[in-house]
Structure formats: C-alpha cells, structure tokens
C-alpha cells in the first residue's frame, strides 16, 4: 500500500503541496476516527482531511461538487486500496451519497464550509478580486455564474444579496453602482467589478488591508453556490446518517455559516423548554446531539502564522444520540430568503 503522506501539511491529492487543511489536529481530535470506522468527508477539496483520516485506519466517503477536486483525488483513491470512495456531488446530499456507497450509517461526518484555497488561487475560476479572471465563481463549473447574477439580477434583489450574504453596510450604494455600469457594458471580468466597487466605496484608512470588494465577492460566491442552503441541508443529512455515538465536526469561516451551525446545535442539544413561573415549560423533542464543544474552537497562533486562512476558522462538534432525526427548517436555522434566479436563491 502506498504511503498516504504527511498529515501536518497535506499535499493536493496526487499533486504538489499547496493546500494546508485548516484545524487538522483539532478536526482529528473531535472526530476521533478509529480503524474500520466510516467517515464522510463532505468537502473533499485537496484531500487533506481524508488523507489524515485514512492514515488512522478509517474508511472515507469523500464528496466534492468541483470536478477538478474529483479528478485530483484519483491518486489518493488508488493509494487507499478501496478505503476511499470519492463521489462527485453536493455535500447537502451526503446521506444519499453514503447510502449509494453501501453505508446505512456512518461513524463521523466532517465538513469544511469555506471555499477551497485551490479555487481561490486559480484566477480562471473567478473567485478572487485580486486576480483578473472571468467573473465565474461556480464550484460545480455549471449553472448561472456570478456574471449572470451581476448583470441580470434586479437591483432590489442585488441589494439584499450583497447586504445579507456579504453583510455589506453600503449594499445599496454598491448595487446601484453596478446597475448603472452594467447598462453601459455587462461585467465579464473579476477586476472590472472589483475596481468599480473600490472606486465607489474607497479605501478605509483603518482597514487598508481589507479590499472594499471583499464583502460583495463573498455575497456573490455564497449566492451562486447556494452555500448557506448547502450547509443547513447538510446538517440535517448528517443527523439522519450518523449512527448513535457518531460525531459531526464542522469548520466554518464566516459568521453566517457559524451562526447556522451554532443554531442547529443549540436546537438539537436542547433538553428543556423555556417556560417561566407564569407559563408552563414547553415540551421539546429528545436531543439528537450531545454538544462536544461548548464554544467554538479556534486555531492556535502557530497555525495562523503559517496559514492565514485559519484566522477566521471556527470548529464546532457534536455527538449523535439515539433520538430519532427531526425535520429541519433551513430558514429557521438561519438561511435568509432571497430572490430566486435561474435555480439560485429561494
């Protein structure tokens, strides 16, 4: 059997070292994979988590919606001698993918909810406002692109997308500037949009290191890929497929994702209703998870020095109980309602 490589700085699956999995030590600690366990890595990416889990003797169902990640992971599939099953698809469907691989229950699920560094580093993928490329941002390389959204979404809906998903306080200003510019010439390149936003918003002396387009690009990426919908639906799928005692570990990179994860665990670990001396205590369903992390786990200084992406990472984990899985309302979990656009939003 081929050696699966170094866990501390995992290389791109089958390729050069360029991807450092965030909070790897902490993920393994809270996931606690054992030899023979079945673990779902719902965001395979460059294979960093999967590689480390395989080294500990577990089997892995790896899932990724990006065709490049699936192609790049084939060498690791071969090296694993049957212990890694790599599936193209969305992590929201992780229950279906696990069952299609022959597993009616799994021992762990890990999700890295951030955009892959491989995607950010590739200018042609259109995720970065620092590199010129097509205004794309599609993880699956299919469906409506960021350019389609920027050029066609009504301005009132564009304001909501930028304001809610980018948490951009000046969303109205940005959206109206985009609307004015697109009437003269449709946006096709990342730097066209980034330069417009910088011109409109200017640079804050207090936040000179933060590009003014950061929040708008975040909003477009989340909207184009349905990232918050995916995250919420994946939580429900994990609840359904995890065995009693199975562990769910999630790493998020911005407040919107972390809020959904935190709210989910708060709801699923609750054992008592509110109530007061004037109102009877409400009945609550049996808890489906036991909370393992009382507060978010963050990267240590040594890791953030090496990997700046880790600075905003937060890890939360829970252990599945024997209680029956429940229906999940993704909007109650924190997913905002947004205008539909050719299959996006909702």
Task: Walk me through what this model shows.
Strand 1, helix 2 (48-55) and strand 2 (59-64) form a beta-alpha-beta unit. The longest helix is centred in the last third of the chain and has 15 residues, at 227-241. Strands 1, 2, 3, 4, 5, 6, 7 and 8 form an 8-stranded mixed β-sheet that branches. Residues 1-18 have low confidence and may be disordered. The protein has 14 helices and 8 strands. It is an alpha/beta fold and 346 residues long. Helix 8 (155-165) crosses helix 9.
List the helices and strands and how they pair.
Layout: H1 24-31, E1 38-41, H2 48-55, E2 59-64, H3 67-72, H4 74-79, E3 84-88, H5 94-100, E4 106-112, H6 117-121, H7 146-152, H8 155-165, H9 171-184, H10 190-201, H11 214-225, H12 227-241, E5 242-252, H13 255-268, E6 289-291, E7 297-298, H14 301-306, E8 314-320
Parallel strand pairs: 1-2, 1-4, 2-3, 4-5
Antiparallel strand pairs: 5-8, 6-8, 7-8
Task: For this entry, give a set of tags.
346 residues, alpha/beta, 14 helices
Characterize this entry briefly.
By secondary structure, this protein is α/β, with parallel strands linked by helices.
């Amino acid at each position: 059997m081929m050696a699966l490589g170094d866990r501390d700085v995992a290389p791109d699956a089958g390729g050069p070292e360029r991807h450092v999995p965030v909070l790897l030590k902490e993920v393994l600690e809270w996931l606690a994979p054992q030899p023979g366990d079945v673990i779902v890595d719902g965001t395979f990416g460059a294979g960093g988590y999967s590689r480390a889990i395989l080294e500990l003797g577990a089997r892995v169902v790896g899932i990724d919606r990006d065709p490049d990640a699936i192609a790049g992971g084939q060498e690791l599939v071969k090296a694993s001698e049957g212990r890694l099953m790599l599936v193209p698809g969305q992590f929201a469907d992780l229950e279906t993918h696990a069952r299609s691989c022959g597993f009616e229950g799994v021992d762990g699920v890990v999700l890295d909810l951030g955009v892959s560094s491989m995607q950010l580093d590739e200018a042609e993928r259109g995720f970065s406002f620092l590199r010129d490329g097509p205004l794309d941002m599609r993880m699956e390389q299919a469906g409506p692109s960021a350019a389609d959204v920027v050029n066609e979404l009504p301005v009132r809906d564009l304001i909501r997308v930028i304001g809610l998903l980018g948490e951009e306080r000046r969303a109205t200003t940005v959206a109206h500037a985009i609307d004015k510019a697109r009437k003269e010439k449709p946006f096709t390149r990342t730097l066209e949009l980034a330069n417009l936003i910088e011109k409109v918003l200017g640079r804050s002396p207090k936040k000179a290191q933060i590009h003014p387009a950061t929040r708008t690009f975040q909003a477009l990426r989340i909207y184009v890929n349905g990232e918050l919908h995916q995250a919420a639906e994946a939580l429900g799928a994990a609840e359904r497929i995890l065995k009693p005692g199975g562990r769910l570990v999630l790493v998020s990179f911005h407040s919107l994702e972390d809020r959904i994860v935190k709210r989910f665990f708060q709801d699923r670990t609750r054992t008592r209703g509110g109530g007061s001396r004037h109102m009877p205590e409400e009945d609550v369903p049996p808890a489906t998870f036991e909370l393992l992390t009382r507060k978010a786990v963050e990267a240590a200084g040594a890791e953030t020095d090496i990997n700046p992406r880790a600075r905003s990472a937060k890890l939360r984990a829970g252990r599945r109980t024997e209680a029956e899985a429940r229906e999940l309302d993704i909007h109650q979990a924190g997913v905002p309602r947004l205008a539909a656009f050719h299959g996006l939003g909702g």
